Amino acid sequence: MRLRAIMLAAALPVMAHADVTVSKPWMRFLLPNIPAAGYMVLQNNGNNNEILTGAASPACSSLMLHESKDESGMAMMMDVPSVVIPAHGTVTFAPGGYHLMCMNPHMKVGDNVPVTLTLKSNVTLSFSAKVYGAVTAP
Ligand SMILES: [Cu+2]
């Protein structure tokens, strides 16, 4: 029974821990010398705010929390130290907004890249993100 439970868990594309779930994870990869970007939806089903504080992937030399902003017509991108996932709320990482920035990406289109997110509560969320190219996106 125990083995069966483990196999079922491994078959799920997205893992849930604590009260936060990750859905629709994907990466956009262009070229090895251009940072790749990671996107997903974080949902907090709990009664308390959760705070995303970091991300990591073996496919990236570092994986940072970034936010794109449009400042008077200029597309800007900045590091963000943390992202609040409000109680009973969602935060969407999507092109033009929050994203994971993958430095020195080691991946190719079609790969499934392991990603781990860390919450301030020390909970980690591990999942795999499918890699898409410039044109194709889910
Ligand atoms: Cu960025």
Task: Note down, in words, how this protein is organized.
With 138 residues, this protein is mainly β. It has one domain (2-132): Immunoglobulin-like. The chain is 7% helix and 53% strand. It is built from one helix and eleven strands; from the N terminus they run αβββββββββββ. It has one helix at 2-11, and strands at residues 16-17, 20-28, 36-44, 50-56, 62-71, 74-79, 83-85, 90-93, 98-103, 112-119, 124-132. Strands 1, 2, 3, 4, 5, 6, 7, 8, 9, 10 and 11 form an eleven-stranded mixed beta sheet that branches. Residues 5-17 have low confidence and may be disordered. Bound molecules: copper (II) ion.
Strand and helix layout:
Layout lengths: L1 H10 L4 E2 L2 E9 L7 E9 L5 E7 L5 E10 L2 E6 L3 E3 L4 E4 L4 E6 L8 E8 L4 E9 L6
Parallel strand pairs: 2-11
Antiparallel strand pairs: 1-2, 2-3, 3-8, 3-9, 4-7, 4-10, 5-6, 5-9, 10-11
Bound molecules: copper (II) ion.
The site of copper (II) ion has 4 residues, from β9.
What features would you highlight for this structure?
138 residues, mainly beta, 11-stranded mixed β-sheet, 11 strands, 53% strand
Beta-strand proportion: over 45%
The major sheet is characterized as:
11 strands, mixed
* Ligands, deduplicated: copper (II) ion
**Alpha-beta content class:** mainly beta
Question: How many structural domains can be distinguished in the coordinates?
Answer: 1
The H-level CATH homologous superfamily, spelled out, is PCu(A)C copper chaperone
End-to-end separation? 36 Å
Tally of individual helices:
1
Count of strand segments:
11
CATH class: Mainly Beta
The pLDDT mean sits at 88
Task: Report low-confidence residues grouped into runs of 5 or more.
Answer: 5-17
Helix percent reads under 10%
**In the CATH scheme, what's the topology name?**
Immunoglobulin-like
The topology string of helices and strands comes to HEEEEEEEEEEE
Shape descriptor reads globular
Under the CATH scheme, which architecture would be assigned?
Sandwich
Radius of gyration: 15 Å
